[in-house]
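Entry 14. Ran structure prediction on the chain below.
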Amino acid sequence: MATKHSADQNSKWNAGGIGDQRGRTVVVTGANSGLGIATVDALARAGAHVVLAVRDPERGEAAARTVNGSVEVRRLDLADLASVREFAASWRGALDLLINNAGVMNIPEATTKDGFEMQFGTNHLGHFALTNLLLPHLTDRVVTVSSGAHKGPGTPRIHFENLNLTGEYSPVAAYSQSKLANLLFTLELQSRLAAAGSSVRALAAHPGWAATGLQGRDASVLRRRLMAVGNRFIAQDNKAGALPTLYAATQDLPGASYVGPDGLGEMRGAPTLVGRSAAASDPVSAVRLWAASEELTGVTFPRLESEQIQGRTPQTVSV
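Output, structure tokens:
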């Protein structure tokens, strides 16, 4: 159940404002640690039944035992489209809320089981496929976790001519591309849902700087050391970092809203609506990315009757 948004809530909002979630079913990807488990715990405590969608069920079960509420664990490897399809095919009944939280950051060059660059494949393509396959079951909203990294460093863009960044891989550039893709995906998903007359909404959120295990996998030793210092002196904990996601998941916000912390540089603070880069607001790029993602995953938007959706023209891309 969504809670009505108000300006007064913005500066003070915390997990106590989630509202009664009894009767709601939620899927959270990457749910066994960090932002994921904090998100699961808050929603389960509010009464939701939460499915921890995790790559390692044993770790997922250990995480689930720390939660006070109704939870279950199901296997999902976003770096393997067969696993994504299996997870979605096994779903029965309504799903109120899908939280696309899982991700990898600044890792050494690697590929998914299907041959995609790991950060783009996991952070974007895996969630793209999962969302579209589950969309016939969804009743309320999809929240996708992006990052301030979609704005920089540098000038992030979608490398349509080389989505896998073959021969030009940079851990930071790949991560920024994947987080930009999360926002363009949200933009186009909301456009398609609206065109189809669906009441389901697509929103995005970012945690600011939250101290999680994500930073410890950085390909650069120097960055790992700097992030360890930042985690100690600058970062929020995972519970505070999860608040923008929880706000986007439970408050009455417009489709395509983007939520982040309200503090300096959006590093920490209470959740509020935040801006995004021009590149993340480009509907032409959003349509092009959607077409590329359908081509690469073989997963399409569910066939809902809409002239506007049917009238869009895919463009060929290279990987």
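The first strand starts at residue 3 and ends at 4. Will compare against last week's run tomorrow.
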